[in-house]
Design goal:
Mean pLDDT: 89
Distance between the termini: 22 Å
Helix content: 25-40%
Radius of gyration: 19 Å
CATH architecture: Roll
Order of helices and strands: EEHHEHHEEEHEEHEEEEEEHHEE
Shape: globular
CATH superfamily: ApbE-like domains
Low-confidence stretches: 121-127
Strand order of the largest sheet: 1-2-7-8-11-14-15-16
Length: 303
């Protein structure tokens, strides 16, 4: 039997995405709005005064950062190591070279008739530029590189907001930030929350419905965040060896994992590297549905 739960909701824009927060306690829902505003002010690469912008301007030098920004960069560095460089947070310069130099709303929409972007050799593949260095309270971005919070930032933001909600006493809570969803609470663990998987080949249509009892669900796709630049269609998932938008057989992935930042990393990694399969997901503690040009492959998410 489903538990009757009185829910409170807030919807707004944050970190360049549509955000929706739902919980069974009202005050912390509104506090979450300010929490995400603070994270955006610290993390946005489009805000010159953000801590991330400061780190990038001072590449090659130590930069003092707040505890939460230090956590973001640690998670991004961990993502790079655990995926053997497939997920590389140091490709911001390459992303800007593809035309992503402003918030997505300001980019020129892609047109279907345009040619897709073709991979090209990067002038300086960042797998060879060295690693992010971290010490207590400060970080150092490698000279010549720039850090992109990307999906790790969105996923981590859902984790932080969920921690706030649960600490405040929520027993049913859901945080939605762009394509990242985070679920938590004792009541939700029992009742679950129904969520949908979109068909990436027919946006706006539901491919499948599932009930989630906790953790995080993240979706990444080469078909959703697309724009036109230099007469070609571009997207935000870059091959770490070429610095260009990946042009592989996989077009989207939806992943369920314990934490939002990790679900987002795995979803992107599945699209970026078609060699990633069930054995990797088992080791990573995740389940997924992968979409290629022909349809979907269920790797345990719906079974």
């Amino acid at each position: 039997m489903m538990t009757e739960v009185g829910l409170h909701e807030a919807t707004f824009r944050a970190l360049g995405s549509h955000c929706r927060i739902v919980a069974d306690i009202e005050g912390p829902v509104h506090a979450a709005v300010h929490r995400l505003e603070d994270l955006e002010a610290r993390w946005s690469r489009f805000i010159p005064t953000s801590e991330i912008s400061s780190c990038n301007r001072r590449a090659g030098e130590w930069t003092e950062v707040s505890e939460v920004t230090h956590l973001l960069i640690r998670r991004a560095n961990e993502a790079r190591l655990r995926t053997n460089g497939v997920m590389n947070p140091l490709l911001l310069n390459e992303l800007i070279a593809c035309g992503y130099d402003r918030s997505h709303e300001g980019l020129v929409p892609a047109v279907d008739a345009m040619c897709p972007s073709q991979p090209e050799a990067s002038a300086a593949p960042h797998l060879e530029l060295g690693n992010i260095t971290l010490e207590s309270g400060r970080v150092r971005i490698p000279t010549g590189a720039a850090f992109d919070p990307g999906g790790v930032g969105k996923g981590l933001a859902t984790d932080l907001v969920m921690d706030d909600l649960l600490t405040a006493g929520a027993t049913w809570a859901m945080v939605s930030l762009g394509g990242d969803l985070r679920f938590g609470g004792a009541t939700l663990a029992v009742d679950g929350c129904e969520t949908h998987i979109e068909n990436p080949h027919d946006r706006g249509t539901v491919w499948a419905t599932m009930r989630i009892h906790g953790g995080a669900v993240a979706t990444s796709s080469t078909l959703s965040r697309r724009w036109a630049h230099d007469g070609r269609v571009q997207h935000h998932l870059l091959d770490s060896t070429s610095g260009r938008p990946v042009d592989g057989p996989r077009v989207a992935a939806t992943v369920h994992a314990d934490e939002g930042w990790w679900a987002d990393v795995v979803a992107k990694t599945l699209v970026l590297n078609p060699a990633i399969g069930r054995e990797h997901l088992t080791a990573w503690g995740a389940r997924a549905v992968i979409f290629d040009e022909h349809g979907a492959i269920d790797l345990g998410l719906l079974t």
